[in-house]
Automatic annotation (TrEMBL):
Prenylcysteine oxidase that cleaves the thioether bond of prenyl-L-cysteines, such as farnesylcysteine and geranylgeranylcysteine. Only active against free prenylcysteines and not prenylcysteine residues within prenylated proteins or peptides. Involved in the final step in the degradation of prenylated proteins, by degrading prenylcysteines after the protein has been degraded. Its EC number is 1.8.3.5. Belongs to the prenylcysteine oxidase family. Its cofactor is FAD. Pfam families: NAD_binding_8, Prenylcys_lyase. Residues 1-24 form the signal peptide. This is Prenylcysteine oxidase 1. It comes from Staurois parvus. The lineage of its organism: Eukaryota, Metazoa, Chordata, Craniata, Vertebrata. It is an enzyme of class 1 (oxidoreductase).
Length: 503
């Protein structure tokens, strides 16, 4: 049968096109199952974003060996619950604000307590109820350093806020360094490789200001001094801003809410191993999957997944997962995590411990400390329940309050007797709460294998609720784009300028 050359070209083109479509469909089939290991704020927000990106048909399992919420947790004392882990959220934390709104939760504002900073001998700074007096004290002791710090942090926050626009337009990053560079350029990367002390001295802050004001902020937020990296130090200073808030009922409600909204299945168990497996399909193709081994109360289990998101620290003291048979081997040992002990005491504080002679009017409700060998605590503050209840007049008059103490070690009975005139209830929570920072930082990779992603890589830049949420959305976008070959949405340069021109 005669076929014209033009018709042959058209048929050949159609055949080639159909073959390309078939190849694309074979290689870019929708994943069936995704595993998320860890149900803290990182893992639950990852499940939430994965559902948004991959659609309603994907099956998502979330593994958690302890309680949903992870390092967002409350502690019960005498019928009330108090934040024992991550406790406050910055007003510019847009993911957390969106979660609270979308989940129908409510925000609460922590009480405005008067602050003092104690160096082991005296208070180097003590707030007054009068704003003007505080301004005079700041200028008298530290010149314009407070104002300069506010402007310094605001400049960093302005750059930080770029990540929300990038993620709104579905851009993702394959390394934590590339994510930080897209936000703040060389400035953010350089801050990873110097201490906050060096960063602030370079910016002209006085040593006295750093010792008296910056050190206490680092100690209360990260249990470390000014030898931590400059980026996490800036995040810590942002936590001294006004307008901080928390979730009514406890910040952990965000995690349980996200888990429910993601329609993921919670598997209460410990993940022990991850191994790559190959399965043959009916047309004779080979599919690559990951087999997760885990243990629950009912015994051991094995399940297969297309994509694995690790949302728990790869640290032997926090989560000892064995990666079996990978070449090259997957590195599973990140650096050490910093121990912080949170002790809750219902009692009457001993003001004389802080140099206040009896009889003593002690108006302070939060005391931070400088780096002094005399001190066995990092901070002590009066705390309110996560579901606020009015403080009774009797309680106010007696001075009985619930206090939260951060210390490097569990407090002894003798130390408690030094801190309190009297007390009748004590609860202790021991955390490996955040990395032990030591610049220059070695940031773990985000992508550990073909479709295994490590969300907690971002903690080694800075550990915070919003950092985990940002990492979760980045991993959801990255896994989606890499699965479907959308390279134009990964590690793109000059995004700030490009999005300005597009808008």
């Amino acid at each position: 049968m005669y076929v014209s050359s033009a018709l042959r070209r058209m048929l050949s083109g159609l055949l080639l096109c159909s073959l390309r479509v078939a190849a694309t469909q074979e290689l870019r089939y929708p994943p069936n199952r995704i595993a998320v290991i860890g149900a803290g704020i990182g893992g639950t927000s990852a499940a939430y974003f994965l559902r948004q990106k991959f659609g309603k048909d994907i099956h998502i399992d979330v593994f958690e060996k302890d309680n949903v919420g992870g390092r967002l947790a409350t502690i019960e004392m005498e019928g009330n619950h108090y934040e024992a882990g991550g406790s406050v959220i910055h007003p510019l934390n847009l993911h957390m604000k969106t979660f609270v709104k979308d989940l129908g939760l409510n925000a609460r504002t922590p009480s405005g307590d008067l602050l003092g900073i104690y160096n082991g001998d005296e208070f180097v700074f003590q707030e007054s109820e009068w704003f003007l007096i505080n301004i005079i004290k700041m200028i008298w002791n530290y010149g314009l350093n407070f104002l300069r710090m506010y402007m310094w942090v605001e400049d960093i926050l302005d750059k930080f806020m770029r990540i929300y626009r990038y993620q709104t337009f579905d851009y993702s990053f394959s390394t934590t360094e590339s994510l930080l560079h897209a936000m703040g350029g060389d400035d953010f990367i350089s801050k990873l490789n110097m201490t906050i002390d060096e960063a602030m001295q370079k910016s002209g802050f006085t040593q006295r200001f750093i010792d008296d004001i910056v050190v206490p902020a680092m100690r209360v937020n990260y249990g470390q001094g000014v030898k931590i990296n400059g980026f996490v130090g800036a995040v810590s200073l942002a936590g001294t801003d006004s307008g901080l808030w928390a979730v009514a009922g406890g910040n952990k409600l965000v995690c349980s809410g996200l888990l429910y909204a993601s329609k993921a299945q919670l598997i209460q168990g410990t993940v022990t191993s991850v191994q790559e497996k190959f399965r043959s399909t009916k047309p004779g193709n080979t599919v690559k999957l990951y087999e997760i081994g885990y243990v629950t109360d009912r015994g051991p289990g094995l399940d297969l997944y297309d994509i694995v998101i690790i949302a728990t620290p790869l640290n032997k003291n926090l989560g000892n997962i064995e990666f079996v048979g990978f070449e090259p081997p997957i590195e599973t040992s990140s650096g050490p995590y910093q121990q912080t002990v949170a002790t809750f005491v219902h009692g009457r504080i001993n003001a004389s411990f802080f140099g206040c002679s009896k009889p003593c009017q002690f108006p302070l409700s939060e005391i931070l400390t400088t780096d002094s060998p005399k001190l066995f605590i990092r901070s002590i503050s009066a705390v309110s329940p996560v579901n606020p209840v009015p403080e009774s007049d009797t309680s106010k008059a007696s001075g009985l309050r619930v206090w939260k103490i951060f210390s490097p070690d569990v407090l002894t009975d003798q130390q408690l007797r030094q801190l309190f005139e009297s007390y009748h209830a004590v609860k202790v929570r021991n955390w490996l709460a955040y990395p032990r920072y030591s610049p220059p930082e070695k940031i773990p990779p985000i992508k550990l294998h073909r479709a295994i992603y490590y969300l907690n890589s971002i903690e080694w830049a800075a550990s915070a609720m919003e950092m985990s949420a940002i990492a979760a959305k980045n991993v959801a976008l990255l896994s989606y784009h890499q699965w479907y070959g959308k390279d134009e949405h990964i590690d793109q340069e000059d995004l700030a300028d490009r999005l300005k021109s597009e808008l």
